[in-house]
Amino acid sequence: MTKSTTSTTSTTRTIARGPALACVVAAASLVLAGCASGGGGGGSSTSASSSSSASSSASPSTNDTPIDSLTAAIQSPIQAMDILKANDVPTRRALTLAYDRVLAQDDQGQLQPMIAESWANPTPTTFTYTIRSDAKFWDGTPVTAEDVAYSAQRIIAPDSKAAVAAGWGSVKSIAASGNTVTVVLKQPDNGFAYRAALDWFVVQKKYSEAAGADLGSPTKPGMGSGPYKVTSYSVADGATFDLTGTYWGEEPKVKQVVMQTIPDPETARLAMVQGDVDVYFDVPLAATRQFDKASEIAMSYVTGGYNDMLSMRTTTKPFDDVNVRTAMAYLSDTAGLTQPLFNGKATVAKSIVPAIQISSTINDPAKTDQFYAGLPAIPSFDIAKAKEALAKSSVAGGFTVDLPVDTTQPWMSPYAQNLAQNAKQVGITINVKNVSPADWGAGLSDPNASPLQLLALGAGTPSPSELPPVILGTIFNPSGYTTPELTKQLDALAAAPTAADTIPLLTPVLTTANTELPYIPLYDEQTALAMGKDYVWEGGYSYWAIGQTWPEYIRSAS
């Protein structure tokens, strides 16, 4: 988020808690957690005190001394300097330094002004954005409404292959007039409000058109209006960002940011101990034990929207049989693996919706418990019951299936191996296949890939209506599960005017999901941040920092 001094939002209906869809995964406001879904561990410093909190506790004292250079480590490479070409979490952390969004998100995930100094939603199908007049690109030219409109038009272009385009499916038109950009929708979509903060990265039209297919590459990284310009970039070596000195908002105290890819957590930990790395994002949960012991490192842990599932394509045998899907649920020792896989910093998921979205919307622990009590329980680990369920299926003797695992997500392989061992006891052979992050992501939407997949998503909004219309609808549905009645329920859920209105509409959707089991909910993860003791994340680390211009929060420790 940008700490703006501009006016507050102008809006005719509540959009701060309206659902969104497809970011932080290859779909709508979700994000494929990609190399970032392994969060926290038992914290020794700034740790969240509540599992319902999306930001960590207050930070220690700081000072405003300028920081000449800060080195941040990420687990996987910055894939591109263009949101149309990459949507993973590490890439987003880089993009937010150089490219403003039309709107921003605060530490609670709520919308705030950015390039748009105000915005309105005068009708259910119209959004208007008033573009600030003092923003400039790195080359000194002003940011115009035409640039802003172009930045979104390229997402919805007929030839667009952007993963985030799925979240813009309801858009009919995007037009600029004067200092205003107007978006007209084909039908009401309360989730669209968050698109402006999640996907709408502002690029200069002139530069982008000249760069063509090379836009976002090391030779043509782009032309943005963020506080930092891209000084150097390569997929292999990472990127360096330097302050422009002409930013319209308050400049971060960090003059230069160096982002390095360090896939191995222990290598990153040793680099931090030696003072070569200052910040390490998304520390894998299983690796946090050693980070906690290092006196040179301060750990922050927050519960956010990372959600893990086992997906089964219900249009492909044998997963078209609910008895097979039920057997798979009984074979998953989800609770037993929480400690070894996540250092205890995850909870067993009760539904396909991240727990933080439900608990923060209901905002009452007793009523939250009551909500979950009204849903069918996900089958818990029981080999005998798995055998019984499989015996009722069309493949009572068992079957063979591959299970791809993303090698950059530490929890996936051991979980899959454990599942395979359990499945062997009932005659099911699961061949665990290690794959790259790109191949894992591609397999989720490839009808020719294995029908059994692990899914790791990161929520982009605080609303509990964000995820179901994506993974049970037509946007991004690896399971392929659908029914006419479910479609009606999802349409009603997506049209809910406020987040609070989604709760009663969510019950029938989750009842179906927990009964039919196209997805087996596994874990709600925390996320972890490691920082050198010389620095502090002012105000406490937030899960929503994924979409914030994060150096604005870095201060020298007093």
Q: Give the tally of β-strands.
A: 23
Q: The biggest beta sheet, please?
A: 12 strands, mixed
CATH architecture of the domain at 310-456 and 465-520: Roll
Globally, the shape reads globular
Q: Which radius of gyration do the C-alpha atoms yield?
A: 23 Å
* Weakly predicted, low-confidence segments: 1-29, 34-52
The oligomeric state is single chain
**Termini separation:** 24 Å
> What is the helical fraction, as a range of percent?
25-40%
CATH hierarchy, class of the domain at 310-456 and 465-520: Alpha Beta
Per CATH, the superfamily of the domain at 310-456 and 465-520 is Dipeptide-binding Protein, Domain 3
Helix/strand-derived category reads: alpha+beta
Number of helices: 16
Q: Tell me what portion of residues adopts beta-strand conformation.
A: 15-25%
User: What fold name stands as the CATH topology of the domain at 310-456 and 465-520?
Assistant: Dipeptide-binding Protein, domain 3
What is the residue-mean pLDDT, rounded to a whole number? 88
Please describe what this structure looks like.
- The protein is of the alpha+beta class and 558 residues long.
- The protein has a domain at 310-456 and 465-520: Dipeptide-binding Protein, Domain 3 (Dipeptide-binding Protein, domain 3).
- Helix content is 25%, strand content 23%.
